[in-house]
Amino acid sequence: MKDEGVMKTQSFQKKRKIRSSRDFKIVFEKGKKFHISHFKVFVSPSDLPAGRLGISVSKRVGDAHERNRIKRVVREAFRRREDLPPSFDWVFIVGPSSEREKNSVLFQELNGFFNRFIHRGSHGYEPQGKLKDSRSTPNRGGSTPSTPKAR
């Protein structure tokens, strides 16, 4: 017979999941976007007392069992990090290259991201290192976009 108390304390609670498309959309629009090797990560401040996690895996990423494996790794890495700032929503979009990686490699990559996020400080929530905030990249064309002239 299982000890239900142990199972409950180590499970990932529903209140810590981003489940509605509306909540995902809010994080996409208001959050900052970071790129790491196998993931795109959106981080957005939240009014809720506990951080929430959303995971998006396209059907182009492996079979169902591969997608579920990757989601389990992301959830577990997030759940184990009790030192994450509590008032942020996190959305991870899984890249197709992640299906070829071992769990340990993905877990290490996620921990590295969380470490950089924490050590850099969540005040401006700008991780350092290889992470790129896609909103801070300059216009590569060299000029600012022009507005059409009125006739």
Q: What is the fold's blueprint, element by element?
A:
Layout (H helix, E strand, L loop, with lengths): L3 H6 L11 H10 L1 E5 L2 E7 L6 E6 L6 H17 L7 E7 L8 H18 L11 E2 L18
Parallel strand pairs: 3-4
Antiparallel strand pairs: 1-2, 1-5, 2-4
Characterization of this structure:
This protein is α+β, with helices and mostly antiparallel strands and 151 residues long. The protein has four helices and five strands. It has a five-stranded mixed β-sheet, sandwiched between helices. It is globular, with a radius of gyration of 18 Å.
Strand content: 15-25%
Shape: globular
> What are the segments in which pLDDT stays under 50 over at least 5 consecutive residues?
126-151
Number of helices: 4
Task: Specify the CATH class.
Answer: Alpha Beta
The total strand number stands at: 5
Q: What percent of the residues sit in helical stretches (DSSP H or I)? A: 25-40%
**Which radius of gyration do the C-alpha atoms yield?**
18 Å
**Class from helix and strand fractions:** alpha+beta
N-to-C terminal Cα separation, in Å?
79 Å
Mean pLDDT: 80
Q: Might you state the CATH topology name?
A: Ribosomal Protein S5, domain 2
Largest sheet: 5 strands, mixed
Tell me the CATH architecture. Answer: 2-Layer Sandwich
Give the tally of structural domains: 1
H-E string: HHEEEHEHE
> What is the topology, as strand order, of the major beta sheet?
3-4-2-1-5
Task: Give a quick summary of the entry.
This protein has four helices and five strands; from the N terminus they run H-H-E-E-E-H-E-H-E.
